[in-house]
Amino acid sequence: MKSLRCLLVIGCLCWSLIAWAVPASTSTAVVLDPAQQQWLEQHRSLRVGLVLQAPFAQFDRRLQQLYGVNVELMNWLGRSLGLDLTWRNFPDQAALERALVAGEVDLAPGLTQTPAGLRLWLFSDPYMRVPQLIVGPRSGAVAVDLEKLGDNERVAVRMPSAVADYLRATYSNLNLQGVPEERQALQLVLSEQARYAVVDEAQLSRLSRESEFSDLAVVGDIGLPQLLRVASRRDWPQLAEILERGLQAIPAKDLEQLHQRWLEPKYPRLSESPGFWQNLGLLLAALLFSCIAIVVWQRRQLRQLEHHLLAARETINQRQAREEALRLSQFSIDQSTVGILWVNWDSHVRYANRAAENMLGYAEGAVVDRPLIDFEPGLHMDRWLELWKGARASNDVALHFETQCLRADGSLLPVDVSLSFLRFRDAEYLVVFLTDVTERRRALAALRESEARLKGIAGNVPGLVFRLERNPAEGELEFPYISEGSEALVGYTPAALQHPDMGLRNLVHPDDRADYHKVQDLALATDRDWSWQGRILTREGEQRWADIKASTRSLGDGRVVWDGVVWDITQSKRAELELARSQEQLRDLSAHLESVREEEKARIAREVHDELGQMLTVLKLETSMCELAYADLDPGLNERLASMKRLIAQLFQLVRDVATALRPPILDAGIASAIEWQARRFEARTQIPCLVQVPENLPPLSDAKAIGLFRILQEALTNVMRHAQAHTVQISLSLDGRTLRLTVIDDGIGFALDENRPTSFGLVGMRERVLMLGGQMTLESEPGEGTSLSVAIPLK
Fold first, then answer.
1. Boundaries of each PAC domain copy (predicted)?
2. Whether the Cβ atoms of residue 605 and residue 663 lie closer than 8 Å to each other
3. Model's pTM, two decimal places?
4. In 10 A of CB 294, how many CB atoms?
5. Domains 33-126+228-262 and 132-224 share a fold
6. What fold, for 132-224?
7. Is the pLDDT reported for residue 11 higher than 50?
8. Does an H or E element contain 349, and which?
9. Tens digits of residue pLDDT in 626-655
């Protein structure tokens, strides 16, 4: 057993060395207001008073330097605030206070706030907690409850001291034995003259390094910690505020590492323990005896092996069940709708579930290591310590109150707070449960308002308002409510429609009843909302168009209801049908006009090319004859005839361009050749490279579809030239089954499809051409990402 304890001690020492080797966190910047910054610039040199007492502050005469927890704390503050610190050493606190009165000291770390000290100093909030620990023999050590100790169990404590006064006032049953120093109290425990000793953690960390006290262990905490603060001159309140800002900027994990390095007890190495070699010899003897016993007891162990295996399997199953329960518990806490915070004694959050982070408006992990004053501005340190003591004293009884939490965006959130004290893994926490009461109050108010509004709306809606309900026991449907507007809409009274043989289904037109049943049955089977438009018949047989909408909700007793309304949309439906017919006729008319216009363009192109071309040819021939006959007579006439020939050539080109613009002759060679020809003309005009991909063998197209696709391509390239500012253009023509697809892609500046801009008649014209050809057009574009136009035309 002792050997096992030795191995545990070795593991603890290794972990301590690893923790010592991990570098401290980087300093956090201290934010000061302009007035504080100005005051600090004028008082950079400060005098620090230290009471030399291990491990808080000590002087190394060999290295001629100070070290200790208070020295490290002040060095951190000096670096973060840019202070020039001068150290003054004192043998006790009385000498330090005399130096303060004489004006020789500006601040002092590691002091405890007392009524007498408040007359001399200004104290900061506590930056470190030094508990008063109960120390007893390591062998058989268990947690100690001071209230259950008997008169024959003596407790050694330093007297006189505040700890002795606290124990005497709180635990009247204790048999206290006073000693002048903590060392003597521990020696009484070792000599069994006292059962336990009460020593503060700082002194225990100093004494535990000595091998004399290696057999002692911490078995409890009396609950009266010593709170260390930084004291400053009362006539410099600005210095107190600056020091408070600096202390708040110290990360909680840095303070915890400082506490672990200086104040937590550390035990001597195993080789220094007086019983180490004796235990090692006993261990070797036990190993030798075990080897002999293995040979003797082998058969007996074989018989017991099956029993042990079964027991081990059962133990493993139980452990797996406990681990699964633990995982489920952790998942439930993380996913709980109640905010849960674990808070340490210094009011910094150590754990926060996702619900708490959402309530307070912080990102995941942003709540940890923050003080509670960030969420409740009125929760200063003194009030927090009162809550801590109250929850610790009440133990299992939770404290409840309501407050308002400050969220990350500056808004206030009313919450119900429950505090519960928790001891977990040798640490103490205050578990804070947060319940948002805003939504509950808002929901109740909204429910009342909604019910009142629904009653008012249902009584004045110019239609039929209904509620359809399904009985969970019998599964039958019934109408518990139908508004009075049913008579004006369909001529039936609400009572007539509520009859089981009537309902809304019998109002639907016979031709639309199958579609209505399909929609309603699906909604009823899946407990979903449903919507339907169709024809209904009134009591007089009049046909009307109706829009029926119903939304579902579940009641607390398991019932499912659908709240809906029946609107009369006859006029709007008729107008919609008329508008659709009108649009169909206009599109047919537009297609006819476009066909006529293309035919007229082709006719004009032929006449311009044939008739005007012949006349220009004759005119050019006559001019050439005049040049041969009369050019030698007059040099000026020769120049005039040459100018006329150049004008005739330009007119020839103009005629060709006009005829080509009216109807390119290349269309007679097929749409693929026409697309390639148009792309080359676009390249020559704009100097923009144009990549073309067309299939080799295309089925023949009608003249209308070929001209339509060509005009769409012309309009698309015109838009690229005017607006796109593109560097390259890709054109592809592909055959997908019985669909011919034209795609134009540019790498220009693009545009937002949903932005408000003037009507683009080019896009409107392309879309109308596609609709006339029975196809579909898709346009995709984003600013800076170019534009893609895709047109799909059916071959039949």
1. 399-449, 530-581
2. yes
3. 0.37
4. 10
5. yes
6. D-Maltodextrin-Binding Protein; domain 2 (3.40.190)
7. no
8. strand 349-352
9. 777 776 777 777 777 777 777 777 776 676
